[in-house]
Amino acid sequence: MVDSIPSNEKPKVRRKKIKRMLTQARVCITAGENNTIVTFTDPEGQVLGWSSCGSTGFSGTRKSTPYAAKVAAETALEKVQGYGIQSVTVEVKGLGPGREQAIRGLLGAGLNLDAIIDRTPIAHGGCRPSRRRRV
Questions:
Q1: Distance (Å, rounded) from C-alpha 53 to C-alpha 58?
Q2: Hey, which residues does 36 pair with through a beta bridge?
Q3: DSSP summary character for residue 63
Q4: Which residues contact 115 (CB under 8 A, 6 or more apart)?
Q5: 44's torsion region: left (phi>0), alpha (psi -120 to 50) or beta?
Q6: Helix (H, G, I), strand (E, B), or coil: what is residue 68?
Q7: Model's pTM, two decimal places?
Q8: Can you tell me the distance from the alpha carbon of 89 to that of 61, in angstroms, rounded to the nearest whole number?
Q9: d(C-alpha 54, C-alpha 57), whole Å
Q10: For 104-120, what is each residue's pLDDT tens digit?
């Protein structure tokens, strides 16, 4: 009789991530009201690394501060340091408080910015907005 390994006890095989050197990358900054997400991708759009205000340790209302966005940008840059990125194209989406500081965090780390593109979605008519807030 042959003892077979039960399906839930099979060893998990993890594919080895291929590290490659890139000189240029794209940074997508999504600046929401409550959080800022910074994502590094290669020119084709494959994600190299990301970080957000929440993942860097900020919680609650501190996530929505410009300083938290700067820390998130610096943390995302540390994650992709092994790729040898020198210049980036920045795409900003959203009107949150961290959009300016996230770009300044990348500049302070010594990256060359090729272009800054604003991809904030603007409704032309669009859905009916929620009611006005009464304080």
A1: 6
A2: 31
A3: G
A4: 89, 90
A5: alpha
A6: helix
A7: 0.80
A8: 29
A9: 6
A10: 999 998 899 999 999 99
Least Cα distance to 39 among 31, 50, 48, 52 occurs for: 50
27-118 to CATH, choices 3.40.50.150, 3.40.350.10, 3.30.420.80, 3.30.428.10 = 3.30.420.80
pLDDT at 6 over 80: no
| pLDDT reported for residue 90 | 96
DSSP-assigned letter for residue 21? -
Please give the structure tokens belonging to residue 16: 């080895």
What digits encode the pLDDT tens for the residues 24-68? Answer: 999 999 999 999 999 999 999 999 999 999 999 999 999 999 999
Quote the CA–CA distance of 78 and 101 in Å, as a whole number.
17
